[in-house]
Amino acid sequence: DRAVFRLSTTQKSLDLIVPASVNPADVELWLDGARVAGQSTPTGRVIVTLPGAEPQRQHQLEVTYRFAGGRPELGRMAIELPRLGRDVWVHRLYWQLVLPRSEHLLESPAELAGEFQWQWHGLFWGRTPLLEQPQMENWSGARRLLDVPDDTNRYVFSGIGSVSRCEIRTVDRALLVLAASAAALLSGLLLIYVRVARHPATLLVAAMLLATAILVQPAPSLLVAQASGLGIVLALVAAWLYRGTLRRHHRVTVRDLPSSILERGSSKGLSRTLPPSSDASTEIMPQEVPVSTMDSHP
Question: What's the pTM?
Answer without folding.
Answer: 0.76
